[in-house]
Design brief:
single chain; mainly alpha; 0% strand; elongated
Length: 152
């Protein structure tokens, strides 16, 4: 019981952190990047990556070592849907992270990167897509946990 509660707590708190970091990135991106907030954007992206790692590890721990067991999850179509959406989010997040990582030296030197309108539009679209996919996760999680569509 202890491990179940621990892993569930880590999982839910990590999801909240992930959403908070992602939403923070989107808000900063929409308001415009300047010398005051560019470092915050870079730190939010690091927080986003770390929270995604914690979501993954705690999710795998919950699937493998808690009451329902791995067999329940492997037979559950909603689990597969949730994993697929998680992978899509991870793939989408590579683009902003690559852009932000490319700015590190520039920002360290005290410069604000130049952002052309095309980059502004593309990156905003990716962040919005990630937000939409993240908000789909609790629905899939609820369907998964209740075994909807699995028969008896």
């Amino acid at each position: 019981m202890f491990w179940s509660v621990l892993w569930a707590s880590v999982h839910y708190l990590s999801i909240l952190m992930l959403f908070g970091c992602l939403y923070g990135e989107l808000l900063l991106w929409r308001t415009g990047i300047n010398e005051r907030n560019v470092r915050t954007l870079l730190w939010l992206d690091i927080g986003y990556g770390l929270s995604a790692l914690f979501v993954l590890v705690s999710g795998l721990a919950r699937a493998g070592w808690t009451e329902k067991g791995l067999d329940f999850y492997m037979a559950n179509p909603w689990f597969h849907g949730k994993v697929t959406v998680f992978v899509l989010i991870a793939l989408l997040s590579l683009y902003p992270t690559k852009v932000f990582m490319g700015w590190r030296k520039q920002v360290k030197a005290g410069h604000v990167p130049e952002i052309d309108p095309r980059l502004q539009k593309n990156l905003r679209g990716v962040l919005v897509a990630e937000i939409h996919l993240v908000t789909l996760m609790p629905v899939l999680g609820a369907l998964m946990a209740r075994g909807v569509g699995m028969g008896s």
